[in-house]
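S2.1 Query sequence (Mov34/MPN/PAD-1 family protein)
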Amino acid sequence: MIVKISKENYNQIVKQAKEEFPLECCGLLAGVKTDDEILIKKVYALTNIDQSSEHFSMDPKEQFAAIKQMRTDGDIVVGNYHSHPYTPSRPSEEDKRLAYDPKALYGILSLKDQEPVLNFFKITANELVEKLELLVI
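Output structure tokens follow.
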């Protein structure tokens, strides 16, 4: 499975994470899926209502508005993303426990090092974590 994201959308996620540092940022990803590819067409930056550097909860009103806009645009929710201000770009135990949808894409942007690192994962049954190939286009 390959995940494709435009440089513009990639930069939007990085910018949000840096602006909200040291808190975790979060958001939804809209796009299209095929059997072997997920194309992220739009990034919806949402508010982390937990205001924490260790976990996040998306604002429900903002989620609803984003999904409504996706439907208007003819897109679907392909997944979500959040940042790890101080830890690597891999799912934490909490991330795995809260990954309720095995069809969803889970993006994690790490700001731990000088260069941000973005990875996308499929998480199944709280245990099986598959890192997906990422292509910035």
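The mean pLDDT is 96. Residues 7-20 form the longest helix (14 residues).
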